[in-house]
Design a protein that fits this description.
Elements: E1 3-12, H1 15-24, E2 28-33, E3 42-47, E4 53-58, E5 65-72, H2 75-84, E6 88-89, E7 97-98, E8 102-108, E9 114-120
Parallel strand pairs: 1-4, 5-9
Antiparallel strand pairs: 1-5, 2-3, 3-4, 6-8, 7-8, 8-9
């Protein structure tokens, strides 16, 4: 399995406050996606001068969730690998968020550890 990116991701109903905090720590917004999965979710990718990445998503939830974002070349291979290791899709069996540019889902282990699994669809893959 080829992992192309691995970094923390924070899912929060207070994303603006978290983004502001990390901007004060030197992170800059690099990319924003609005209305993810047609659910009024906004995701912001941030990066600092040292090359560290952080993703912050505005969601509707009682508590913040800190997860790991793992981008892979082959979504189906990584999805099967995580399922074989006891992870379950947080939004229901085999439901994924798909767009022209990406395929993703939140996978959660029995202990509560989570991975936001994503495959970016490259131009050569279309």
């Amino acid at each position: 399995m080829q992992i192309t990116t691995f970094n923390p991701m924070i899912l929060s109903s207070h994303a603006d406050d978290i983004i502001k905090l990390f901007e004060e720590l030197g992170f800059e917004k690099r990319h924003t996606v609005d209305n993810v999965d047609n659910k009024d979710i906004t995701s912001v990718r941030m990066k600092d001068a040292n090359g560290f990445h952080l993703d912050v998503a505005q969601i509707h939830a009682e508590k913040d969730i800190t997860t790991m974002r793992m981008n892979v070349r082959d979504f189906d291979e990584a999805y099967a690998f995580l399922k074989d290791h006891g992870f379950k899709n947080a939004t229901g069996e085999d439901h994924t968020v798909e767009s022209e540019h990406a395929k993703s889902c939140l996978m959660i282990s029995e202990s509560g550890f989570s991975i936001q699994l994503t495959q970016h669809i490259r131009k050569e893959d279309r």
